[in-house]
Amino acid sequence: xxxxxxxxxxxxxxxxxxxxxxxxxxxxxxxxxxxxxxxxxxxxxxxxxxxxxxxxxxxxxxxxxxxxxxxxxxxxxxxxxxxxxxx
Length: 87
Prior knowledge:
- This protein has one helix spanning about 50-60, and strands at about 5-10, 15-20, 20-30, 35-40, 65-75, 75-85.
- It is mainly β and about 90 residues long.
């Protein structure tokens, strides 16, 4: 079985928070209309922690990044599930 991923260049944004001593980073991006998508690193072509780190670094440095993703709709809104990144 072969899976087809979409490819798009985005400018990620990161929001960091800490609760009960645990740091959490939320990723998002805005594309086209503008529509905001939540970004969720997923296991696939790269480890989740590596995808998260690349997206956070690009967000901190205002750099665009190319992603391999699939779109999904969740109860929290539109989401891009990211399986690979190229800074």
